[in-house]
Amino acid sequence: RTVAIPHVQTSVSLWELGLASELVFIGDAGTTEAGRASRRSGVEVANYYHPLPWLTLDADLAWSRARFTEPDPAGDRILGSVRTVAAAGITVDRQRGPYGSVRLRYFGPRPLVEDGSVQSAATTLMNSELRYRWAARNRLSVDALNLLDAKDSDIDYFHEPRLPGVPAEGVADLHFHPALPRTFRATLHVTF
Fold this sequence. Notes:
This protein has about 190 residues and is mainly β. About 0% of the residues lie in helices and about 60% in strands. The strands form three sheets. Strands 1-4-5-6-7-8-9-12 form an eight-stranded antiparallel sheet, with no helix packed on it. It has a two-stranded antiparallel ribbon with strand order 2-3. Strands 10-11 form a two-stranded antiparallel ribbon.
């Protein structure tokens, strides 16, 4: 971690995690079960810039590698493990009057089968919040979720659905949970 540049804080982290059993999601059952041993490693870089006492700009980047360590003909990729994640934002924080932030979040493609031949698309979402504080105990906030109305997925799976009463031969296909469409939420906070 360094604060060598005025108003800037940067930290770099190197990490590694070895698991005797990786939890694996089972799509049709909606549960997880114990899987093979795995190893994850990566690097994370976090930056915070405070040009003014009430203004913060931040940017974080993380890269990781996730692999099963026990051999299997199916492959060594851990399903849904994100390789690249980035987040950035601008925050205005004042004691009175308007304040808020705009945040951008990026999740890179994720393997959906163990040999890595099928991957999800990347997901990029922007959220913002605007708040107004008119007294120490009162504030109004308006949040905009998925501000750009991206048609991305929150999560993706690739499997053969097995519904009750359907023959065992299924067709492997992409299944996903879409990101929330552009949504606005207003909240009045009153503290007693």
